[in-house]
Amino acid sequence: MKQQLKLTILSAATMALLGLIVVSSAEPLAQGSNPDVVKSEIDPKLVLRPKGTKLFDGNKAQLIKQGEALFKDQKLSTNGSSCQTCHAENEGFSSTFASAYPHEVTMAKEKAGTSEVQLDEMIQFCMVVPMEAKPLPWNSRDLAALTAYAGELQKAFRKRLQSNDARAGNSSAPK
Questions:
Q1: pTM of the full structure
Q2: Sign of CA dihedral 85, 125, 121, 144
Q3: Segment holding 67, helix H or strand E
Q4: Residues 101 and 158: beta-carbon distance below 8 Å
Q5: Is 174 a member of any domain?
Q6: Of the residues 26, 110, 120, 159, which has the maximum number of CB atoms within 10 A of its CB?
């Protein structure tokens, strides 16, 4: 418990130093309570694409290949995690990942109050929240590559859901 509390405090402190979150709580934490009940808010300007932004455009196959490498790269984070830490083997996605973007994502709604996000914006949320890093530049090849690769993961995720639903006899799988 002390180890978990230290990690939570360190993570919050790291993010606060980066200017990424504001920590608030209506009441002090009771002894033995869960430190995860502390509210964190992300400034939506950090993770939502500014209007008129020109995104990097390149060879899709090359971007997907680079995105796969970046997906596994712990150097993108400040805490030793990578995208793969949460999403190895195409796991760790909620069922809404099968839906076309933009759509609601729980993390984005809880952390920044956003009703829906685009795929590149969700990558920025992951950079800021679990990976505790600064968001990638909007016009960067890295963001474009991670977005392209995540799009491929989304296709595989949809196929797996459809396959699972077909085996279960459910024909309402997302298309």
A1: 0.74
A2: negative
A3: helix 60-71
A4: no
A5: no
A6: 120
